[in-house]
Every structure is written in C-alpha cells, then in structure tokens.
Design a protein that fits this description.
By secondary structure, the protein is mainly α. It has one domain. 74% of the residues lie in helices and 0% in strands. The protein contains nine helices and no strands. It is globular, with a radius of gyration of 17 Å.
C-alpha cells in the first residue's frame, strides 16, 4: 500500500474510531469487494453472502478501536470474513432442509451478475465445486482483481503459497472446464 493510501486509510480509521459513519462507509466501499470475495469462496452459495458481508462489517464497527495499523486492515477483514463465512455455512448446514429455501433476489454484486449469464453460471458452478483454498485464490484474483500480495495478506499465507495455489487452481479449473 502506498504511503498516500496508508495516510488516507489512517484518517478514515481514526474518524471511524470517533464514530464518524461516513468514514466507516468509505471503509466499507473500499473493502466490500474483498470481503465478498472471501465470503463467497468460503460459502459456495450466494444466498448467504449478504448476511456474511454485513456481519463482517458489523464486527469491524465493534472492533475498529483495536485496529491501530492501517496496513493490517485488509488482512484482519480477510481473516474475519473467512471465519464468519465458515460459521454461517456451519449454522446453515444444521438447519432443516425446508428452512434453507430462499426466494431469489435481484443480482447486486459482480459475482451474482456473472451467475446470471449462462456461461458465467457454469464457470461459477465449476469454481464453487473446487476446494475452498482454490476457490478463494481464483475469486480474489480474477473476480476482485487482487494482487498476489493482497491475496496473501487476506489469507495470512506467504505470496509463494498463493502463487502455487493459483497455479494448481487454474490447472484444476482447466481440466474440469474441458469435461
């Protein structure tokens, strides 16, 4: 992150700690795509995505005073998103089948817009059937345009691990797509 962006984020965090809702909104706008990508990769379903994203940012609002380093925010959000999505998926798996039915809603995120397109839907189905560690890197890299470094920060893994996972994920995706 550049010094300019770090300074800007530091100001937003300081204002958010003081209760400024506009600053919290700016943080939400900046990191929403990242959080959506991590949650979508973990959930494998879009009907819980909005709940997961909302819960992650609620946790941020409650914990914003604890975040001192602006550079740590993306990693913190990524870890919280992974845990939150995993918790929601576990709760959902314990519900009786009838409670899992939801009414479809209009697409509001890039992920949901891609699903509307038939080819995109088939591709997303293939990606969502992959192991979570492969789904995460693919979605963060190609759907949310994150750099290797940003993905590594979010996942709490070394950049080389991200590169290897992405290579393996692409290879697996290519093999599945040909089928």
């Amino acid at each position: 992150m550049s010094a300019e962006k770090t300074g800007e984020l530091e100001k937003l965090l300081r204002r958010a700690r003081d209760g400024d809702s506009r600053s919290m909104g700016a943080i939400f706008a900046r990191y929403r795509g990242l959080v959506e990508g991590v949650c979508a990769a973990r959930l494998g379903r879009s009907d819980l995505l909005a709940d997961a994203v909302q819960e992650v940012f609620l946790k941020l609002m409650l914990s914003v005073r604890q975040i001192r380093e602006p550079g740590a925010l993306a990693g913190w959000l990524g870890r919280v998103a992974r845990t939150t999505a995993a918790d929601l998926a576990l709760k959902e798996s314990k519900k009786p089948r009838a409670e899992k039915l939801v009414t479809p809603r209009q697409a509001s995120s890039p992920l949901e817009q891609a699903v509307r397109d038939e080819r995109g839907r088939l591709l997303m189905e293939t990606v969502m059937d992959m192991k979570p560690e492969f789904r995460e890197v693919l979605l963060l890299r190609y759907l949310h345009s994150r750099s290797y470094r940003e993905i590594a920060e979010v996942l709490g893994e070394p950049v080389t691990t991200v590169q290897v996972r992405l290579h393996r994920a692409r290879k697996q995706l290519a093999g599945k797509w040909k089928e």
